[in-house]
């Protein structure tokens, strides 16, 4: 099934320009309601391009949660709002669980009890993790009386707005709807257009030139070889570490850029995470809106750090195990979340000792922990993860002989790894560059070169990694 990807020619040269032009023409003639309906229609078309049979599921989810939000906010005397909130969260989680985890659950039941229960083999609806979490946040905000207006068109736009629909960021109703309502945002803002095109082009370059280059080595190492030596294993793990970084940050940049074309500012979701000096700092920089969701809607409601050290450590561990499971139905994802939870507990204990660590050593430990744990995040199963880790820790020998033709250019791979390690740890990130960006002839030439190079050199249209979560 083909997706209408940000990096596809159909999206760049047809869908996006038509969406943009019609939206502002409608606003120019003061057809504000129709302009919002147009964006909703564009977003639903964008979603349906992948597989129209899941469109009813998305619409059902939207109408269900919108109705519950009205009940929670406006009918508190007739219905217990907390009970309605629990019902809403439960049904959202059950829906997500059915599509994302049912087969995983059945497989484990069959393994444990030697049963033969049938799998449903359902295809995961695109973006279900993101639009489910977005709407759970809406219900909680409605319960907290933080939702100020209820309009079905506005709500549909909030949930389906195509720059964030498939892979985030996870939005709050209160941070988006005032922007869509603002009169000044109804007209083309050429400064926003130039900034949006600038960061979109950077994101496109990150995805099709950098991330997709590293993807080749990562895929061979994880999926297509039976064993790896020390050097191949490190090339494999580091390639995935940088593939995921540039793939996700590329998507984030492109989403921010597209939204800016329509004068909408999405929250930053990515802030140089490989500059982090500890694991807590990493999670303040990586997938920032997911971290915010886990903190505000899971960690704090469980008690956060308000009920003693033991409870704090338990809450951290549970929160990140949930974060691991959210990413995928597999024991490797759960274990990845568990490792990050343990790391955050150890960081809390270390911080309590008030012992300062050299910044270079702190960065080295943090980065290598992230790189090693990404192995579990990427591997299809335990065997694939152990294969890579065995090589990384020298258990398959330190021979420099190349075991697969895919690694014939291993020196080139390590050269690129060192280059982009420097880029992600020393240079300014794309958000900082965008904030400093000033439209000029020179900047227009730079944008054009980056964009044209990205389009011409992209070998194929590949989906973004976070589409799978």
TrEMBL record:
Keyword Phosphoprotein in the entry? The reply is: no
Annotated membrane topology: Multi-pass membrane protein
The regions listed as transmembrane in this protein's record are: 6-26, 33-50, 56-72, 79-99, 119-140, 152-171, 308-327, 360-377, 406-427, 439-457
Question: What superkingdom does the record give?
Answer: Bacteria
Where does this protein have coiled-coil stretches? none
Q: Where in the cell is it found?
A: Cell membrane
Keyword set includes Transmembrane helix: yes
Keyword annotations for this protein?
A: Acyltransferase, Cell membrane, Membrane, Transferase, Transmembrane, Transmembrane helix
Similarity-based family: Belongs to the membrane-bound acyltransferase family.
Name listed for the protein in its UniProt record: MBOAT family protein
Q: What is the lineage of its organism?
A: Bacteria, Bacillati, Bacillota, Bacilli, Bacillales
């Amino acid at each position: 099934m083909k997706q209408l990807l940000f990096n596809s020619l159909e999206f760049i040269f047809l869908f996006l320009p038509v969406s943009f032009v019609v939206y502002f023409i409608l606003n120019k003639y003061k057809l504000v309601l129709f302009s919002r309906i147009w964006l909703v229609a564009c977003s639903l078309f964008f979603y349906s391009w992948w597989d129209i049979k899941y469109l009813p599921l998305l619409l059902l989810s939207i109408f269900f949660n919108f109705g519950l939000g009205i009940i929670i906010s406006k009918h508190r005397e007739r219905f217990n709002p907390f009970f309605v909130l629990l019902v809403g969260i439960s049904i959202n989680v059950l829906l997500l669980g059915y599509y994302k985890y049912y087969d995983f659950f059945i497989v484990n039941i069959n393994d444990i009890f030697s049963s033969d229960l049938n799998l449903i083999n359902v295809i995961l609806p695109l973006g279900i993790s993101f639009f489910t979490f977005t709407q759970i946040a809406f219900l909680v905000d409605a319960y907290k009386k933080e939702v100020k207006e209820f309009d079905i068109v506005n709500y549909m736009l909030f949930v389906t707005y195509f720059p964030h629909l498939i892979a985030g960021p996870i939005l709050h109703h209160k941070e988006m709807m005032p922007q869509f309502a603002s009169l000044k945002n109804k007209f083309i803002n050429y400064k926003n257009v130039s900034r949006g095109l600038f960061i979109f082009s950077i994101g496109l370059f990150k995805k099709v030139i950098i991330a997709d280059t590293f993807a080749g080595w990562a895929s061979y190492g994880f999926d297509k070889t039976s064993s790896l030596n020390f050097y191949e294993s490190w090339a494999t793990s580091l390639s995935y570490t940088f593939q995921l970084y540039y793939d996700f940050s590329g998507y984030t940049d492109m989403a921010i850029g597209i939204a800016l074309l329509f004068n909408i500012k999405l929250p930053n979701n990515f802030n140089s995470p490989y500059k982090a000096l500890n694991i807590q700092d990493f999670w303040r920089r990586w997938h920032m809106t997911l971290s915010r969701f886990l903190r505000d809607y899971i960690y704090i409601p469980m008690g956060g750090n308000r009920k003693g050290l033991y409870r704090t450590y338990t809450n951290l561990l549970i929160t990140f195990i949930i974060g691991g499971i959210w990413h995928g139905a597999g024991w490797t994802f759960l274990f990845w979340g568990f490792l990050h939870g343990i790391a955050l507990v150890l960081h809390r204990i270390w911080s309590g000792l008030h012992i300062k660590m050299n910044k270079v050593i702190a960065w080295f430990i943090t980065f290598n922990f992230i790189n090693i744990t990404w192995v579990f995040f990427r591997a299809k199963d335990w065997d694939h993860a152990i294969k890579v880790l065995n090589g990384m820790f020298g258990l398959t020998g330190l021979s420099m002989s190349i075991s697969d033709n895919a690694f014939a250019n291993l020196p080139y791979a390590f050269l690129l790894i060192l280059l982009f390690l420097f880029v992600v740890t020393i240079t300014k990130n794309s958000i900082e560059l965008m904030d400093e960006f000033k439209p000029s002839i020179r900047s227009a030439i730079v944008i054009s070169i980056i964009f044209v190079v990205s389009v011409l050199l992209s070998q194929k249209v590949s989906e973004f990694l976070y589409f799978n979560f």
